[in-house]
Amino acid sequence: MSYNPRTDTKEFSSEFIAICAVFFLIGFNFSTWASRIPAIRDSALLIPATLGYALLARGIGSVTMIPVTGWLINKHGAHKTAYYFGCVVSLSLVPIFLSPNWIALAISLIILGGAGGGFNLAINALGANFETRMGISRMSTIHSWFGVGNLGGALIGAAATALLLSVQFHFLVASLLMFTIIVISFRFIPDERSTLRSSKLSWPDSSILWLALIIFLAACTEASIMNWIALFYSDYLETGEKIAAIGYTIYATALLMMRFLGDRLRSSISAQQLIIMGTLIAVFGIVVAVIGQDFYISSLGVFLIGAGVALTFPFVFSVAGKISANALAIVMIFGGIGELISQPILGVVIQKFGLDGGFYSIACIILLTTLCAWKAKLLHR
Prior knowledge:
The chain is an all-alpha fold. The chain is 81% helix and 0% strand.
């Protein structure tokens, strides 16, 4: 990307804050849903297997929206595409708490996943367009606000659970907040065509395929942790729902802290080394969490899991994005497929072997990520 530096950067400050706000929103939406999964599971009368089937729907919606969103951005621009997807995202929590069974929940999660996937791609286009017009790099800072929103939603979810607030009230207030953010933020984002254009996808060569496999496995891992960590606390550690939401908060905190440190670490250590070390730390964290069977010891393990997996996504996306738009698109699709197929499989595993067996399965997936990172020559860059 060629930059054309601007000296009048103050006029862009409102737009920059607005873009950060919409990145905050997407993280907030995901963690708000994840923090109340135990209550939603109980209200919809789900078992682990049917919960896994319902979670599959979210991945279906997200993967389906990748080519659709690219077409919409080309036809209508990133601003309109992001705005309308954002409105759907902000209201997508409402049908979730109204779902009486796993089929209704699956339909609601298709909406959540599809809108979230489309919104995520469109706001990245807005960020790239802003960065080009500014003439300086800002994407790292912009992306960090996803983590802030993720942590904020987790903290509010933990507080809502501790205060015994109903899922209905919690999600209605969250939806109102998100809708307000959308309406206000897009007043400060100009309606200009993004420089991002979708490209024809082709099968990747072996070097890019290793990156795609890493993201496939990383998506399996992060989706599994996000969707099952609260149940790990409530059911395996027997903390009850009031404490269970804290588990995701601990994980999200570690994720955010490590991503803020990632760029500094990257200046002295290669992306490959950081991902390998991180994945090994995450595996150790899972062992500690499962074997500990104590709130504090297991929470330490959960923190290590979050810190360990934190840098995989940003560094692989960074490398793929420097190669070509096609490489980045392929990597994103593999990630969507990983999220898509992992949850029903994990649901069946947990149904048969329990939550400890499920988390050991996640550890095996992370070890495969370590192997792929070791083989990925592009991560030497």
